[in-house]
Amino acid sequence: MTATSVQVLPLGVLAAALAAAGVWIVLRTRRTPAERERRRRLLVGSHGRVVDGTVTELRDQMLFYAYEVRGVEYSASQDISVIARLLPADPSEIIGHVSVKYLPRVPANSIVISENWSGLRAALQEAKVKSETKETM
């Protein structure tokens, strides 16, 4: 072995070790699709702007809705299977006018409901009135 190869060998081993550590870190911190969706809902819920929208359909734990931002109409859907417990007992009450939160830089990134925010109007107001009525009885 020459003096140059003796100096390069430790650098090669170090580079291989760093690459292996990097791969391990990436694989270890990979988020599940459910976790990514939860984080997206929380981000939009905390940093989004509110606009009027309309829920057009509720099918198979999917909420379909439409809204308009700066003259552009958007149609979107949201998986509500994880947050179904936040919905009224009769999910058909959701269809109609709602508030939609969207990210200003990416208006297509939107939600109608999340763990910390809800744009449901009539259904939530009716549920609130019903719960208050039951409490006073």
Descriptive key words:
137 residues; alpha+beta; OB fold (Dihydrolipoamide Acetyltransferase, E2P); 2 domains; 3 helices
Question: Could you characterize what this model shows?
Answer:
This protein is α+β, with helices and mostly antiparallel strands. The protein has two domains: 1-30; 33-136, OB fold (Dihydrolipoamide Acetyltransferase, E2P), CATH 2.40.50. It has three helices and five strands; from the N terminus they run H-H-E-E-E-E-E-H. It has helices at 3-28, 33-47, 122-136, and strands at 49-59, 62-69, 72-79, 96-103, 106-111. A five-stranded antiparallel sheet has the order 3-2-1-4-5, covered by helices on one side. The longest helix has 26 residues, at 3-28. The chain is elongated and about 80 Å long. It starts with a helix and ends with a helix. The mean pLDDT is 84.
